[in-house]
Amino acid sequence: MSEKYLISIVGPTAIGKTSLSITLAQHFNAEIISADSRQFFKEMQIGTAAPNSSELKAAKHHFIHHKSVEDDYSVGAFEKDAIQTLTKLFLNRDVVIMVGGSGLYVDAVTCGLDEFPKVDKNIRISLNAQLIANGIETLQSQLKHLDEETYNKIALNNPQRIIRALEICIGTGKPYSSFLKKSKIKRNFKVLTVGLTADREIIYERINKRVDIMIEQGLLEEVKTLKPKAHLNALNTVGYKELFNYLEKEWTLDFAVSEIKKNSRRFAKRQLTWFKRREETLWFNYDTKHETIISEIESTIKA
Q1: Is 11 within any annotated ligand binding site?
Q2: Do both 154 and 230 map to the same domain?
Q3: Are residues 246 and 252 in contact, defined by beta-carbon separation less than 8 angstroms?
Q4: Domain carrying residue 207
Q5: Residue 15 among known ligand-binding residues
Q6: Over the stretch 95-133, which tens digit does the pLDDT of each residue have?
Q7: Which has the higher per-residue pLDDT, 1 or 49?
């Protein structure tokens, strides 16, 4: 193989991306880069469905539990680190696997980050004050009014993402989405994106089952240890924020778990919306045999 390939595995949460990534890594003698923005944090293991010890031993992984929730680790920093890692790996390998459901982080590696104009820093200060005074719902409504396209794609439970989009909308008078890249930057490797999907009912059933398993594995105990750090952005994450509400005695445990399932299903819907934008993606049903996927990948690479 004369060219270098990054095989990027995408799809909604709980669809089977980790299992496929390990199979592909073993077949292609490749290493795996994680593009899951919450699996970066070592304190968040159960609630992020990070690869377990046996999965980590089955294939070499990068960007799993290499940061603390107290670290400020941006998508820009990840892009830089990931490209540096890929450059080193491609010295001795023709294929590297990337896996993750964080669309912005996947795009940062495959397409590069978008460039935005500078805006008055006082806009962000004002929006943060609005968040504290009125809650995230007011910011969500404002974003829907100013840029419905971004509203339908963004992680609506992430105040930093919403504020970033709003400050561009307000500061430029144009939608945040209008500044998004129309074309990819040139990388020194080719990208082959493989997507896993299923009927909505099956995706939701798998998500509900995964949440039940997380609870059985001790998610509540993990969240208890992180309660003193609940204010950190990394912990404003599905599976953690709901259980913080339970620990604050605002919700019952059963209701908190039902909210985790509901918010995970909403997140999966947004993931599919994001990943379906890429027309060149090779989509497979979640239960497709890995051998079939490998055969299709090899045919595409050789074409």
Answers
A1: yes
A2: no
A3: yes
A4: 5-113+182-302
A5: yes
A6: 999 999 999 899 999 988 877 888 898 999 999 899 989
A7: 49
> Could you report the per-residue pLDDT of 144-171, keeping only the tens digit for each?
999 999 998 887 888 888 998 999 999 9
- Report how many domains make up the chain: 2
Confirm whether residue 239 is marked as ligand binding: no
Q: Which of 222, 264, 267, 265 is nearest to 247 (CA)?
A: 222
Could you tell me the pTM of the whole model?
0.83
pLDDT digits (tens, 9 = 90+) for 230-255: 999 899 999 999 999 999 999 999 99
Whether residues 102 and 214 share a domain: the answer is yes
Is 85 annotated in some ligand binding site? no
Q: Where are the alpha helices (DSSP H) in 35-135?
A: 53-58, 75-89, 103-110, 121-134
**60 labelled as ligand-binding?**
no
Residue 237 assigned ligand-binding role: no
Residue count of the chain, please give it: 303
Residues contacting 65, CB < 8 A, separation 6+: 39, 40, 41, 42, 45, 50
| Residue 17 labeled ligand binder | yes
